[in-house]
Amino acid sequence: MIGEDLLVVAEEFGEWDDSNRRIDLLCVARDGALVVVEIKRTADGGHMELQAIRYAAVVSGMTLDQVVHAHARAHSLEEEVSRTTVLGFLQSESDDEAALSGAVRIVLVFCAHLAAHGWLHAEGDAALDTLTAEAQRAIDLLEERRSALISAAVTGLIDVRGLAPA
Description:
Layout lengths: L5 E8 L9 E7 L4 E7 L7 H12 L4 H12 L3 H11 L14 E7 L1 H44 L11
Parallel strand pairs: 3-4
Antiparallel strand pairs: 1-2, 2-3
Helix pairs in contact: 2-3
């Protein structure tokens, strides 16, 4: 169950003719509506809204028996156990009382934090590259000045005799 109002019928649901596509989550709501949940982890969402509409159309004709069957298969349960689960969730005593409403709702879940993570990672890499380059330039300059100081001390351009600790 997702929250109190949705029962997960199946994950990666694709039990329809001529389909190699899958609904991320097929759920049923307490009011008997089927709910298609599409989850996308790509930066652009990958046309998820069109995909979800297509899936909603496909499942719109599902019967209660088909929902029970899908639930049983997805959860490795006997069909009667699934029927009891689904009917209980719909707060119905029998198949006669329980009916799907015929409505299908769509929930689109775009994992923006993953897209944001990718952006931050790319930005962080660029910032890290800039800081690394600046640090390397500073190291190169310090090494150059150190070499110049040693050269000047060795050739007598600067007097370092009084600088050494006693």
